[in-house]
């Protein structure tokens, strides 16, 4: 399956492989600790954000957060 | 099929031959919330069957439509909820779909899908005709959607079988090599 940004398809494939494995083998079995795909996701995300801006796609109400685990950020 | 199988397949639904118009899927955001649920926001790019002559005149950017999808997977309660809405042509029509996958309450190897769609056509006098047309399309798409997941599940099972077969092959040849060395 391709990405919206042609240049991002390869990064997407690498991330998808990692995510699909984690999802089926860990997450669905109750083990959501650890995020083995974080780095891949970041690289893929940067590419997708750029493509979305270039193609002027109207994504609403979404901050590109990256692979956080719902940790609250405390700023002092 | 069991809920885990259906959920895994739903995450990998595209591409499939029942939805040839979906040409791109991207993850915009994904995170596990404090209660352990996985949220994914995805962008689906669709390309409808516009004649290539028209496409070459107006460019593919103008024939591409987009759908935004938010899914939540709860591995403890075993529910998967998907909500999607179009983000193209919102001035003309809005299609909001909601799908929920849960294990069958009495048959644990089956999954129940509930699906609903709200369609509204804006500012067009043929609105009730168009809404009826879209309702039929969405209901036949719902059937296609189930067929699509069956297709994905078959492919996933074939992948697993292939992997197992090659693992058995590797084990046999390393056992044969070990036996040879021992002699």
TrEMBL record, chain A:
Whichever gene encodes this chain, its name is: Triap1
Name one molecular function that GO assigns to this entry.
phosphatidic acid transfer activity
Taxonomic lineage: Eukaryota, Metazoa, Chordata, Craniata, Vertebrata
- Protein name, entry field: TRIA1 inhibitor
**What's one Pfam family here?**
UPF0203
Question: So what family is this one in?
Answer: Belongs to the TRIAP1/MDM35 family.
InterPro entries given for it?
A: MDM35_apoptosis
The UniProt catalytic activity note for this protein reads: a 1,2-diacyl-sn-glycero-3-phosphate(in) = a 1,2-diacyl-sn-glycero-3-phosphate(out)
**Keyword Disulfide bond in annotation:** yes
Q: From which domain of life does this come?
A: Eukaryota
A biological process from GO = phospholipid translocation
Would the keyword Disulfide bond turn up in this protein's UniProt record? yes
**PROSITE patterns xrefs:** CHCH
Q: Which Gene Ontology CC terms are recorded?
A: cytosol; mitochondrial intermembrane space; nucleus
Alphabetized, the UniProt keywords read: Disulfide bond
Automatic annotation (TrEMBL), chain B:
Which PROSITE patterns has this protein been placed in? PRELI_MSF1
Q: Where is the PRELI/MSF1 domain?
A: 1-161
The species this protein was found in: Pitta sordida (Hooded pitta)
**Any matching Pfam family:** PRELI
Q: What is this protein called?
A: PLD3B protein
Superkingdom as given in the UniProt entry: Eukaryota
Gene Ontology cellular component list: mitochondrial intermembrane space
